[in-house]
Structure formats: C-alpha cells, structure tokens
Amino acid sequence: MLISLILGVASFSFSFAGFGYGLIAVPPLALILPVKLAVAIPFPLTFPLFFVHSYRYGHRLSWTEIKPFLIGAAIAVLFGAFSFHWFSEIVMKRTLAMFTVISILTARYSMGEKFLHRIAVTFPGGTFLGILSGWFMGAYTAGGPPAVISATAKFPDTEKAKGMLSVYFLLVGLVLIVLFLSNGVLSLDTLEQSVLHLPAAIVGFLLGDIFQKKVSRKGYMTGVHLLLFWAAILLSPPIETAG
C-alpha cells in the first residue's frame, strides 16, 4: 500500500511537471526497500508515462526546435558513461546542484527568465545544455535538471516544454533499460512487482493532468522549481566532518 502511494505521488508529479518521477519515487522507496529494488520497481512504469506524454505533446515540436539539445546530449552521454571515474562524483554532483539552484533563482525573475530563454533558443546554448544533461546522464544518471531548465526556458508553452522532456526521457529510458537488464537491476520478478502498482500510477497520472490544467504558467513553473530544488538537495550529500 505504501509503495503504491509513493508511486502514485510520483506519477502525479510527472504528469503535472513533465518530470520528477524518479526524484519523488526512489528516495522514499530506498528507505523501505533495498536500493536495487527501489530503482527497479518504479522504472518499468515510466515507459507508459513517457509514451503518453510523447504522444500528447511531442507532435507540437519540430525536429529543428529540439535538434541542438538532442545532438549535444547524444554526444555527451557516451563521454559521460566512460569518464565518470575521472572526476570526483561528489564535486561534480554539487556543481550540478549549484547550477540548478542558480538557474532556479534566475528564472524566478522576469529579466532572468528572458535571459535563460535567449540562451536556450540559440543553437550553441541549446547544444551546451544538451551536453550538460547528456554528460551527467551518462556518468551519474542525473541529467534531468539541465533538460528541464532547457525545456522550460526555451518554450513558454507548457505543453511544448513537456513534449520536449517526454521525448528526451523516453530516449534516455530506452538506453537505461538496456543497461539495467545487463547489470541485473531489472528482471521478470521486479517487472511483476512493478505491474502490481500500475493502478496507483494511473490514478496519480490522471490527477496530475487535471491539476496541471487548472494552474497558470506561473503556478506550473513554481511546481517545476520546487522539484528542481529537491533534485539539487538530492545531488548534494551532506559534508562529512571529522570526529
């Protein structure tokens, strides 16, 4: 029952914001389940969510609009996958957390929001954000925040932003499923456990969709920034002190 509730809330967050499923689901599940199961049980449920959003919102996008970001991400994800041991994971994650928080604070002001938009709509700016997302995705599976910052800054239209995110996360998910199958995270047993919670995920998704339609762009961005701030917290483990 508790697992279903957590996955329902995670699905609500994804349906509302276009991201945040893993951010909401995995940390509390890891408190009551082994970490491997906390990752494996929610993961299969992401694909129906990604497919629905891709179908609903993806057609509003053109290849030209998202090409810079996807090109940057595709190049960097391979680099990140092979270079994660070159740098300190803690330092890199805290750097991403700092970038995320600065972006949130910038976007909270009209002038800052326009500044981020001007960066995201250019080919170099979009490619840079794609590289940032792809590299962190390949190295630490933590590329969500740069993708969200790029999509919400580039598209004032909420549905187009969610369309870009759903297409990107669907592509990333296809890569991750191969990885998780190869390293044993996913199995027939975990898939069966995941399916048991599908009704809760569906209810959460439907409620999130209803709620999102009732809020303004400002309300939507507030929800996005809260989820990004939560991501920044998760990326910044507490500093260990001696003694």
Automatic annotation (TrEMBL):
Entry membrane topology: Multi-pass membrane protein
UniProt-listed Pfam families: TauE
Protein keywords: Cell membrane, Membrane, Transmembrane, Transmembrane helix
Residues spanning the membrane: 6-25, 37-57, 69-88, 123-142, 163-182, 194-212, 219-239
Name of the featured protein: Probable membrane transporter protein
Compartment list: Cell membrane; Membrane
Residue ranges that the Swiss-Prot or TrEMBL entry lists as coiled coil: none
Signal peptide from the UniProt entry: none
GO cellular component: plasma membrane
Family classification: Belongs to the 4-toluene sulfonate uptake permease (TSUP) (TC 2.A.102) family.
Superkingdom of source: Bacteria
